[in-house]
Amino acid sequence: MTLSNENVLFASLLGAKVAQQIPRFGAVQNELGKHVLPPIPFLPINNKPVKVGYPDYTVMSDDQLWRADAPKSESEQFFPFTWIGDGGQRYLLPYEPMISISTKNNIAERKVAKAGDDIKRQGTVKERWSADDYEIKITGVLIGSILTGDVSKCFPRSDFQKLNEVLRKRKSWEILCEPLQLLGINRVVVYDMNFPFTKGENVQAYEMSIKSDFDFDLLLEEEDVLQS
Hints:
Elements: H1 5-13, H2 16-20, H3 25-32, H4 62-65, E1 82-84, E2 90-92, E3 98-102, E4 105-110, E5 125-131, E6 135-143, H5 151-154, H6 157-168, E7 173-176, H7 178-182, E8 187-194, E9 203-212, H8 222-227
Antiparallel strand pairs: 1-2, 1-7, 3-6, 4-5, 6-9, 7-8, 8-9
């Protein structure tokens, strides 16, 4: 007995009771077991096979196999941090760092002896106060272009030396960073820097403490002194 695909499909869709009424039911059932039913697209979805591509490692050199992720450009970072040196030369931190900002008020207090037990008279007298500097903690990482290999190619030497120059120069730096500019911070002074031990041949972490630096007019004109 020979069945076409359509006959097989129709026979498979029939209920058990109806199929039992067909002559030679056993032969039909045996024949159905030899056929694979065609797939029926019950849902309106795309059943096209998904192709997964893999790089051809056979045509790659050793440098390409061990190459690390490229640094992010300024447009690819959410809060890029840029140092501006002499002559407008810019240095963008290659990988977006973590930035923590803190500040406080400097308050001159005076302790006054007060008689009585009135709770409203307890505490100190706040005479004068001023805003302190913004303290900024920067934590980031430098990554070499190759995961492992020779030190000259693996370790991020160029970025490491540039950060060291930032620390060594005795000057206030102009910076560009969106959250700092929202606070009116355009210049900072580097207080200390730390390069802790970091796991990975091509990775070097760094920690930096900087403070805001605002311009002040220390020399006043004689007219301004008289008016004040």
